[in-house]
TrEMBL record:
CDD domains referenced in this protein's UniProt entry, alphabetically: ABC_MJ0796_LolCDE_FtsE
Residues of the ABC transporter domain: 4-219
Pfam assignment, any one: ABC_tran
Signal peptide: none
Alphabetically ordered keywords of this record: ATP-binding, Nucleotide-binding, Transport
GO molecular function terms noted in the UniProt entry: ATP binding; ATP hydrolysis activity; transmembrane transporter activity
Cellular compartments per GO CC: membrane protein complex; plasma membrane
Keyword Glycoprotein: no
UniProt name for this protein: Putative ABC transport system ATP-binding protein
InterPro entries per UniProt: AAA+_ATPase, ABC_transporter-like_ATP-bd, ABC_transporter-like_CS, ABC_transpr_LolD-like, MacB-like_ATP-bd, P-loop_NTPase
């Protein structure tokens, strides 16, 4: 059984905008898949569905065996927290909290903030020594690694990343890419939207979206 399964999924927004059009897809445990495609092709819509931030208009989305199509907001949030770590292009760090506090924020939602766990997550991204620094004292790459630590705090099976290197220079991009490769080796599944063909090629499979349709995927 796949970790993520989409069966004939469509997402139709108001005004009959078919953002996703009859897309089927399976992502296996431990697989790294990239999603590419022009602006407006449905990439964000797909991430929102798989990230349990929205539900499909038609079809079935299953996360680790759970059909999320009929879940309410509260139930969706629970699946997201247990299964998925989210990483975005924008860092969304709280500017007045230190690195370790920013990682703990993910846990406040569980009301079980644990500094030790947050420190462990920072160590996993190689930033244990920067735990008490504010975001503005960190480079762009370090800030993104704090965000990845925040995504890792609950040991998610799937890391869902939306243009994670989009705001980084070449050097920091390489550091973040190396980190994703390490997380993949450790067994995390990764689904990454990227515009950068070099980053996209690191995945075992590339899915290309165009006008809401899945065009092709190699291998
Ligand atoms: P991408 O991430 O590839 O740029 P999106 O998933 O954001 O594509 O958008 C796919 C299509 O759906 C676009 O035509 C976009 O304008 C439309 N769309 C996205 N979100 C909404 C929304 N909330 N309401 C209406 N149309 C939307
Ligand atoms: P934008 O979101 O406008 O694209 P970036 O996210 O690339 O900009 O951030 C630009 C700079 O602003 C970063 O290098 C960092 O120094 C600072 N910065 C960004 N986000 C934060 C934040 N949440 N807290 C503190 N500083 C931040």
């Amino acid at each position: 059984m796949g970790l993520i399964t989409l069966e004939n999924v469509s997402k139709i927004y108001d005004g009959d905008v078919r953002a996703l059009d009859d897309v089927s897809l399976e992502i296996k445990h431990g697989e790294w898949v990239s999603i590419m495609g022009p602006s407006g092709s449905g990439k964000s819509t797909m991430l929102n569905l798989i990230g349990c931030m929205d539900t499909p208009s038609k079809g079935v989305v299953k996360i680790d065996g759970i059909d999320i199509s009929k879940l309410n907001k509260k139930e969706l949030t629970k699946v997201r927290r247990e299964k998925i770590g989210l990483v975005f292009q924008q860092f969304h760090l709280v500017p007045y909290l230190t690195a370790v506090e920013n990682v703990m924020v993910a846990q406040y939602y569980h009301s079980m903030a644990d500094e030790e766990e947050a420190l462990k997550a920072l160590e996993r991204v190689g930033l244990g020594h920067r735990a008490n620094h504010l975001p503005k004292e960190l480079s762009g790459g370090e800030q993104q690694r704090v965000c990845i630590a925040r995504a890792l705090i609950n040991y998610p099976k799937l890391i869902l990343a939306d243009e994670p290197t989009g705001n980084l220079d070449k050097e920091n991009e390489q550091i973040v890419v190396d980190l994703f490769e390490e997380l993949h080796r450790q067994g995390h599944s990764i689904l990454m939207v990227t515009h950068d063909p070099k980053v996209g090629q690191l995945a075992q499979r590339q899915i290309i979206l165009e006008h809401g349709k899945k065009l092709e995927s190699n291998k």
